[in-house]
């Protein structure tokens, strides 16, 4: 079929482009001891790939259950939740305490709190059969505003010097991911990915909407809660690794849909992951080789993502 052929060719093209960028990232401008260079760049590359895959997959899954290609997990206040968790931990331990805290413990605390809070919200909203995703989204917006306001209140109580240190920690950074976290992050993201692979056909059915999915034999509440749990893990791990990334998933998924030309998850999920890898690896090369670390990858991603978000809103408004 023409659509299937286009999707396969798009995946091959994205895979080749991602592979070329990865090869260039690992070798371009390398001098000196290759063992050190490859190990150093390999750790950074693994962090970029993990974050790109987690953010892209979580956005695809969230858009599937909400049946909306503009919404992202950020609408549920995940970024605000990370902001509050990091602020409270910093306020409790102080700048000196956080500097001496094991990064794995910091990572585990952030991930556990974010997953626990998000799943508590999901269980409350889906406690009965009449609960709707519309209420989920509405409360998610209010939830996010409340958490961000609370985090800003705590930040105002900090010493100005400590606030500067906290601001630096909260800024999305893709270049200094602690190597100690890559192993556990790989296990968590890998486990969710393996769980998703045999459920791709179910995701296609769920994407048709609640009434159709139920008529086709899907246990809606159970399936949606399981998907949202997977979203919680992916977003929590990505946020704990690099911080707040609002628009990366939106850009990656939008470009993936444009590339494959259909909504089948067996094509959209790998395409979104590959686009995310292309954006982060290519963007990091741009930051290092062109701007000489004069800017941050997070700023580039948010700038492009903000433009994409506005363009999508305008396009939907014209329909």
UniProtKB/TrEMBL annotation:
InterPro entries in the record: ABC_BtuC-like (IPR037294), ABC_transptr_permease_BtuC (IPR000522)
UniProt keyword annotation of Transmembrane present: yes
Pfam families per record: FecCD
GO biological process entries: siderophore-iron import into cell
Alphabetic keyword roster: Cell membrane, Membrane, Transmembrane, Transmembrane helix, Transport
Subcellular compartments: Cell membrane
GO molecular function: transmembrane transporter activity
Origin: domain of life: Bacteria
Similarity remark: Belongs to the binding-protein-dependent transport system permease family. FecCD subfamily.
Protein name: Iron complex transport system permease protein
Organism annotation: Paracoccus lutimaris
């Amino acid at each position: 079929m023409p659509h299937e052929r286009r999707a396969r060719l798009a995946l091959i093209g994205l895979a080749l482009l991602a592979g070329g960028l990865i090869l260039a990232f690992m070798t371009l401008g390398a001098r000196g001891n290759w063992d050190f260079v490859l190990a150093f760049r390999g750790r950074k590359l693994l962090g970029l790939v993990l974050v790109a895959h987690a953010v892209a997959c979580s956005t695809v899954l969230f858009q599937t259950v909400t049946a909306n290609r503009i919404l992202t997990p950020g609408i549920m206040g995940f970024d605000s939740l990370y902001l509050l968790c990091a602020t409270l931990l910093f306020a409790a331990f102080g700048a000196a305490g956080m500097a001496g805290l094991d990064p794995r413990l910091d990572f585990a605390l952030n991930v556990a709190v974010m997953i626990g809070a998000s799943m508590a919200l999901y269980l409350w909203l889906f406690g009965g059969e009449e609960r709707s995703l519309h209420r989920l989204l509405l409360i998610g917006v209010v939830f996010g505003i409340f958490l961000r306001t609370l985090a800003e209140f705590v930040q105002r109580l900090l010493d100005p010097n400590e606030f500067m240190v906290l601001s630096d920690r909260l800024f999305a950074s893709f270049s200094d991911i602690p190597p100690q976290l890559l192993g556990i992050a790989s296990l968590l993201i890998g486990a969710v990915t393996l769980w998703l692979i045999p459920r791709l056909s179910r995701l296609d059915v769920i994407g048709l909407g609640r009434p159709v999915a139920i008529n086709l034999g899907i246990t809606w509440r159970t399936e949606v809660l399981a998907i949202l749990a997977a979203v919680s893990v992916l977003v929590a791990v990505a946020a704990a690794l690099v911080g707040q990334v609002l628009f990366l998933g939106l850009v990656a998924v939008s470009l993936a849909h444009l590339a494959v030309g259909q909504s089948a998850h067996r094509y959209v999920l790998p395409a979104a992951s590959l686009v995310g890898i292309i954006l982060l690896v290519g963007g990091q090369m741009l930051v290092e080789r062109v701007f000489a670390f004069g800017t941050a990858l997070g700023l580039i991603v948010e700038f492009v993502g903000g433009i994409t978000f506005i363009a999508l809103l305008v396009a939907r408004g014209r329909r």
